[in-house]
């Protein structure tokens, strides 16, 4: 039901000229004496009479009139309310009782436009309003007039209805004036900032929203239709963005006056929040489905300007804008980065040609395509892009050649060809560390197999290590230097052992050969070298038959540790220890992960070398032990695991 506007002119007391103390008979006489006219028809007079003699209707008329005023004051107000300047009228009623004062201001608003000063005066009056004097006044005058006294509940309910009628008149009077929305906004904000806002504000806001409802529904429909047209393709995204921006601006005209009120309440204006959510969903559609980031950003700015006034919407809008700007920056970076990605893909597709080119010319812009094209793309990107991404692209290509193509040399050339990237000021420590790790690991992948290839030739292995040291990365040089030192010592030891072995054979075994005229059984001697589990033992030396008999006297499966000595003839149990222990050490090498474990492993190797690095054996014993070893792989693994557990 629509609330009717407030008016002193249509009040029953004014229509009949009655007083608060008028009895029912006096009211009837006033009806009989009243002059019939265009505005005072018989029906109007009868309705006025009915209002004053019916208790419930009478209370509404009493509170809507001018209680506690004298007849002279009432006459003065009625004379001035229609044609007196607002400022003068406000001065006239400044000292009136509160209820009479607000009724006069509401009546003025129903007759003409008002300013924010009149509305502010109205709100301020309600703050000081005390209902008890009015209730006492009505109690007194009703008794005098012979009508029943109203109860407090009915009194308060009727007072609330009066405020609703006031709100209708006040909003209309303010909004019909120039810049009414701005004036309403100023008044509401001032009330809230005062720290003690009027209890009348919710009624005022509600009436304002009812007044704007039709226009807001029209704008909401326009926004919805524009979004749907854009999604269906019947309206371009650019045109939709422009149209939506204008619609939001119009929407703001109707919601801005009450922004402060809803912020004070701690939540967004409901209809604005609904529009915000619909607009935000469309922005996400433009971003994620259409990829129209520029139009999405334009709309986000419009949303932030015209909708995101509440704290919750403002925070959400700021986050969306920040995320979108991040996407735009990523897209721009991707556009800069894409040529380098394409060059990297081309290098992978033509990996054989790329490998030949970098081996011949290095990774330079002058190299044949696709190597030269990749170098050019990398250099071009470095001028405008992120050096960390450039390093990542080069690292990706290097890992492709190292891992997929098994060409660590090409991978190393790539990394060395782009190490200038690490000198850039924006390069991160993480990128530097990762790049350095790639360089060192790939260099090892390249050179270690070349070194291992020369295991049987100490001189050649030493030369390969020496050459690798010259071009090795800083982190690998100490490892190669240590290996080089070991190889040099090894060569020196071999030369010394060779001289000693020749002397011993000349002194001991040549006389034995003269004594034994028959050909001695075939025996073998272990190589004079340190622990190499993967290398084979070889070498054959003639021994006496008595030694042969002694060496093969033990034929069980036991293992005996040989005494630490050089060139001793080992029996089968001692040979079994050396061969089996070598197998176990081979497995233990991969199980030593910590520094303490490595130290213990090195101790086992040192002991093994003392006992098994140089010995002589009978070929039949060696063959038998090696046959045993070939079928004991699982046992060696269990033995190694047991030892490793103690580390």
Could you describe the 3D structure shown?
The chain is mainly α. It has four domains: 8-177, no CATH class; 211-331, no CATH class; 337-493, no CATH class; 572-645, no CATH class. 71% of the residues lie in helices and 2% in strands. It has helices at residues 12-16, 24-33, 42-53, 55-63, 71-80, 86-92, 98-111, 116-128, 131-145, 152-175, 180-193, 201-232, 237-255, 259-265, 270-290, 293-306, 311-349, 351-361, 371-384, 387-404, 408-417, 429-452, 458-471, 477-515, 545-551, 572-588, 595-612, 619-630, 633-645; strands at 522-525, 540-542, 568-569, 615-618. A four-stranded mixed β-sheet has the order 2-1-4-3. The two termini are 90 Å apart.
Keywords:
single chain, 647 residues, mainly alpha, 4 domains, four-stranded mixed beta sheet, 2% strand
Write the layout of secondary structure elements.
Elements: H1 12-16, H2 24-33, H3 42-53, H4 55-63, H5 71-80, H6 86-92, H7 98-111, H8 116-128, H9 131-145, H10 152-175, H11 180-193, H12 201-232, H13 237-255, H14 259-265, H15 270-290, H16 293-306, H17 311-349, H18 351-361, H19 371-384, H20 387-404, H21 408-417, H22 429-452, H23 458-471, H24 477-515, E1 522-525, E2 540-542, H25 545-551, E3 568-569, H26 572-588, H27 595-612, E4 615-618, H28 619-630, H29 633-645
Parallel strand pairs: 3-4
Antiparallel strand pairs: 1-2, 1-4
Helix pairs in contact: 2-3, 3-4, 4-10, 7-8, 7-10, 8-11, 10-12, 11-14, 12-13, 12-15, 13-16, 15-16, 16-17, 17-19, 17-20, 20-21, 20-22, 21-22, 22-23, 23-24, 26-27, 26-28, 26-29
